[in-house]
Design brief:
Strand order of the largest sheet: 8-7-6-10-9-11
Structural class: alpha/beta
Number of helices: 7
CATH architecture of the largest domain: 3-Layer(aba) Sandwich
Shape: elongated
Order of helices and strands: EEHEEEEHEHEHEHEHEH
Number of domains: 2
CATH class of the largest domain: Alpha Beta
Strand content: 25-35%
Oligomer: single chain
Helix content: 25-40%
Radius of gyration: 20 Å
Length: about 240
């Protein structure tokens, strides 16, 4: 069944107004008509079966009928990725959403190349990925922040998985030894972190240094690999679907 994200409260009988693009998708692409059913989620109230109550000249009106799934929280892991080229960054956002990242943050490092960012585009990619993968939440995509500022304001209760391209212990046993709890995964830019950045990261008490293997990975590949390893080690992959 078709699923869409609508950030409006969901309750029995609630009237919902999809965006114009969503309305066009429902009526012109998927050919839905009045009384047809679809699923709606809003990141807070679970997943709801809804019907198309009215088709207007510009848009549609939905009616919330019943909740079919309770809200499920994603695993408490954030992806922090240096700003890279548009295609790689969009791929990383899409796959991070599929792999269950609760939040996605963009980071400016010493070797970050200037890029024209469209956060609205990245938000739309995360939304579409959540719709397609059965998630009941859409991870926020945060605006870029400088690495030093990020580390200066870090909450030490959240472990930081530092994917060090210069080497480190294997990820899965290292993560399992570090244990569960709030985590973040840090992926560097093209060209990697500077020696000074790497030295600071390795010296922080909340950092867990890991290797992603013997090969040099692109940033988008590294993000997908790191999230996969984290999920395999201490994530929610063993939870019943």
């Amino acid at each position: 069944m078709i699923r869409i994200y609508i950030p409006q409260p969901l309750s029995p009988g609630a009237a919902l107004a999809p965006t114009l693009d969503q309305s066009r998708y429902l009526t012109q692409v998927m050919r839905l008509r009045a009384d047809d059913e679809l699923l709606v989620f809003n990141s807070h109230d679970g997943e709801w079966r809804c019907t198309i109550a009215e088709v207007l000249k510009k848009g549609v009106v939905l009616k919330a009928e019943e909740r079919v799934r309770d809200q499920i929280s994603p695993p408490d892991v954030h992806l922090l990725i240096a700003v890279v080229k548009k295609s790689a960054l969009e791929f990383a956002v899409e796959k991070a959403t599929e792999l269950g990242a609760a939040r996605i943050g963009l980071v400016q490092t010493a070797r970050t190349q200037p890029q024209h960012l469209r956060l609205d585009r990245l938000d739309a990619i995360a939304e579409e990925s959540a719709e397609q993968t059965g998630r009941m939440d859409v991870p926020p995509v945060d605006a870029p922040v400088k690495l030093d500022a990020l580390l200066d304001g870090w909450d030490p209760s959240r472990r930081l998985m530092f994917c060090d391209e210069t080497g480190g212990p294997p990820a899965i046993p290292t993560l399992r030894e570090a244990g569960e709890g709030p985590w973040a995964i840090l992926i560097g830019p093209e060209g990697g972190f500077t020696p000074e950045e790497g030295e600071r990261l390795r010296g922080l008490p909340f950092t867990t240094v890991v290797s992603l293997g013997p090969r040099i990975l692109r940033a988008d590949t590294a993000a997908t690999t790191a999230l996969t390893l984290w999920q395999a080690a201490i994530g929610d992959w063993e939870r019943e679907a």
